[in-house]
Write a structure and sequence with these properties.
Blueprint: E1 4-7, E2 15-18, H1 19-33, H2 40-47, H3 51-58, H4 61-76, H5 79-84, H6 89-105, H7 114-120, H8 127-153, H9 163-182, H10 187-199
Antiparallel strand pairs: 1-2
Helix pairs in contact: 1-2, 1-4, 1-7, 6-9, 6-10, 7-8, 8-9, 9-10
């Protein structure tokens, strides 16, 4: 449910804005630009609020990014939870790759991956942001390793193939998909990447 925030205005009655809509707008700015390149002016313009209103409702820029990252994971990466529930390791990989492909093929959202864009463009002053992105990625990797361990116990993985190695391989493909999507690769080219990845997926 959307929430409305009422903040004191300099004159007249309190200024109201929809918090969820403002956060969604901030997410788009961070997603297009990365954390450091997203200026406060661009953020407030996109959100339709003043800088004091942003601070009052969301905290500082770093706190706003954390909330935007939560929204990104909740709405844009929901396919990851579904992927872990696939009955086979190959099914897990296919759901992940096709979910990531769907995002890159969207005409409404920016290309690339918010986490990859923000961590790759972070300078020394934004190390906490990079650390947060890395921590979240590590959590996702741990969940995927655990799922592939189940697949290994079920005899799905080739001899010598470890769950950790398979997870790193899959994340490399996912990150490559996001980077190529953000660099202007066509939908056909990205689709070919997914199809090729599935064609060479290791099976016993």
């Amino acid at each position: 449910m959307n929430s409305v925030c009422s903040l004191p205005a300099t004159k007249g009655r309190p200024r109201e804005f929809d918090v969820d809509e403002a956060l969604a707008a901030a997410l788009m700015v961070f997603w297009r630009n990365g954390y450091e390149a997203a200026s406060m002016t661009e953020l407030t313009n996109a959100m339709g609020i003043t800088k004091p209103s942003l601070y009052a409702a969301f905290g500082n820029k770093e706190a706003l990014f954390h909330k935007a990252l939560d929204l990104y994971e909740r709405e844009k990466l929901a396919y990851m939870k579904s992927a872990l529930e696939a009955p086979t390791a190959r099914g897990v990989a296919e759901r992940l790759l096709r979910g990531a492909l769907e995002i890159q093929m969207s005409t409404c959202d920016p290309k690339g991956c918010l986490g990859v864009i923000s961590s790759a463009t972070c300078g020394a002053e934004a190390e906490p942001i990079k650390a947060e992105v890395v921590k979240r990625r590590a959590s996702s990797e741990a969940a995927l390793i655990a799922r592939f361990e189940q697949a290994q116990a079920a005899g799905e993985l080739p001899e010598g193939m470890t769950p950790a190695a398979l997870t790193r391989y899959l994340f490399a493909i996912l990150q490559g998909l996001a980077i190529q999507g953000g660099s202007g690769a066509t939908c056909e080219e990205l689709s070919q990447l997914v199809e090729t990845s599935m064609a060479v997926w290791p099976t016993r």
